[in-house]
Amino acid sequence: MVTVAENMVRTLRANGIDRVYGIPGDSLNGFTDALRKDGTIRWLHVRHEESAAFAAAADAGLTGDLAVVAGSCGPGNLHLINGLFDANRSRVPVLAIAAHIPTSEIGTGYFQETHPQELFRECSVYVEYVADPVQMPRILEIAMREAVEKRGVAVIVIPGEVALADVPVDRATVITRAHPVVVPNPGELEKAAELLNAARNVTILAGAGVEGAHDEVVALADRLGAPIVHALRGKEFIEYDNPFDVGMTGLLGFASGFRAMESADTLLVLGSDFPYPQFYPEDATTIQVDIRGSQLGKRHPLDLGLVGDVKATAEALLPRIAEKSDRSHLDDAVAHYRKTRAKLDELAVPAKGKNPIHPQYLARLIDEAASDDAIFTADVGSPTVWAARYLTMNGRRRLIGSFTHGSMANALMHGIGAQTAAPDRQVVALAGDGGLAMMLGELITLTQNRLPVKTIVVNNSSLNFVELEMKAAGFVTYATDLENPNFAAVAEALGIFARRVERSEDLPDAVREVLAHDGPALLDVVTERQELSMPPAITAEQVKGFALYAIRTVMSGRGDELLDLARANWRQLF
User: Fold this and answer.
1) Is the pLDDT score of 134 beyond 60?
2) H helical segments located in 405-506
3) How confident is the model at residue 537 (pLDDT cuts 50, 70, 90)?
4) Do 65 and 421 contact (CB within 8 A), yes or no?
C-alpha cells in the first residue's frame, strides 16, 4: 500500500516540484522518508525554519510557481510563521506542510502541542487540518489550487501518524493555474476615458501589478502625457526603457516622484497597493485599476475604481484616450527627475580620507559590477533605500525583498531561495549588519547546499533605519548600537570567501572580486553610520522631531553625535 506521505510526494512531483525547504523532525518522518524513497525531490536543508519559509517566498516570487516548505510539530512549524506572512503579503504561491502531534494527544497539553490551524490562519489563504487519511489526497489538491489561484500561502496541518497511514485513493492531480483576462466593462472604461481626457495634468502611479504590462503602460503614459511614478514593488517592472519614468515616491523615494504626484490634477493608480496616504495628492481626481476589487479605495478615496488586469485594461483604454498636445506637466516632471537623479548620483562618491564609506557609493559600485540578469535581495531598512535609489533595473534583473511585510533579516534568506530557483544566475543579497547577525547561521546553509550567493554587508554598527526613525520623531537614539564582529572573518571560518573593506579606495576592487568569485562570497563594508536617507518631502513634524532630537541629544551629553551627523550629511544639506 501507498502511505499518505508517499502520495503527497507523488502529487508534488507530478506538479513539477523538485525541491522542498525545511528542517526535519520526528513528526515529519513519514514525509521526509517518502522524499528519500522517491529521490527526485531535493530536500533543501536550512538552519532555521523561518529561513525555509523566506526562501520559499523568494523562490515562488522569482518563478511564479508553487514553492513548498515543511516544518515539524510545535516549535518547528511555528518558526515558519514570519516567512509565511512575508509570502502571503507578497502574494506568491507557497504550500506549507505543518506536521502535528499525535491525533490522540491533541487537546491534552502534550509535548510541543500548539494549534497550527489557528496559528496559521492570519498568514494564509487556506489552512486545513487532516485528521483522517480519507481526507487525502483531496485536501492536498485543494490546498495547492488555493495557493496557485489566490497567489498566497496554503497550509496543510497533518499529524505524523496520519502521514504514515495508507492512503485510500492513490491519485496525483496536476494543478494548472488559470489565466483569465479581466477587463472593466465598456461603461466603466468610457467613464475612465472621460475623466482622463478632461484632465490637464495626469500622473501614473505604477505598482507590482504592472508586471507584464510594461509596454502597454508606457504607451498609455505617452498618450496621456503622463509621468510615471513607481512604488517600490513596481520598480523592477516599469523603471527600465521608460522615457516617462520620474522615480519613486514614499518614505524611500525622492523628490521628483513626490512632486509629480503633488502637481497632478488626476492620478491613475495601476496595480499598486502603495500604503502611505500622506503621499497621495489631496485634491486630485483618482482612478485606480486593480485585479482585486477589495483593494480599490483602500489607501486613498477614489473617483473611479476599475477591476481588471493592468495590461488588458491599458490596452482597452488606449483607443479611448485623446492624445494630449500639452505635455508641459510631463516635460516639467522629467526635467525635475533629471535634476533629482543627478543630485542622488552626486552622493554616490568615495568618502574623503579615512572617513567611513558612503553606502550610496557601495550601492552604485554593486549596480555597475553586477550581472545584467542579477537577482538582488535587500534587507528592510537602509539596504532597501539604497537598492531602491541606486540599483538599475533593465527588464532582466530582479529585486526581491520584504517590501510589504517589512521583516528584518530577509536578504540572506530570500537569497537562498532565489539562488536555489535560479542556480545559473548571480544572486546578490544586500544585508544590514543587524539583519545578517539575526540569521547568521544561514551562511552555513550556503556552504552546505553549495549556493553561490554574494552577501554584501552594510556594516554601520547600528540598527540604522531605526535610528533615523527615532531622530525624525525627536527621540535620542537608544538601544540601537551593534557591537559587530569582523563579518568577513566569521564567513571565512564558515568556509566562505570573504573580504572586509573600511576605506573607499579599496572598495571597487573588492566588489568586483567578491561578485566574480565562483561560490558563496561575503563582502563586509564599514559604512557611514550617520548617513541620512532623506525622504522626498520633509514635514513640519519631522523638522520639529529633528530639532527635539538635537536638543535632547545635547542635553544628554552626546553633542558629538550631532557633529558626526553634520559631517556625514553636509553634502546633502548644502
Assistant:
1) yes
2) 410-421, 433-438, 442-448, 464-473, 487-493
3) low
4) no
